[in-house]
Write a structure and sequence with these properties.
75 residues, mainly alpha
């Protein structure tokens, strides 16, 4: 707030600035969540392909990092 006063900016500007910071954090968080979800979907897709060619579930769990339950649900 002191910096805003030094720049001659008022509390209203500070309110808009804070809102913009919150908005940017929300956007970045959504992007990060989307990437994580995409990576999870990719692992599931790979696991499905490995199941189709007969790779044992325990090996798929090791290769993908998915749980045994997650892999068996893909069958």
């Amino acid at each position: 707030m002191n910096k805003l006063k030094q720049l001659g900016l008022d509390n209203e500007f500070g309110m808009y600035y804070d809102a913009e910071i919150v908005h940017r954090k929300e956007v970045n968080s959504a992007r990060s969540d989307g990437r994580k979800e995409g990576a999870k979907d990719e692992k599931k897709s790979i696991a499905k392909n490995l199941l189709k060619i007969g790779v044992p579930i325990k090996d798929i769990v090791k290769a993908t990092g998915l749980s045994k339950k997650q892999v068996t649900m893909l069958m």
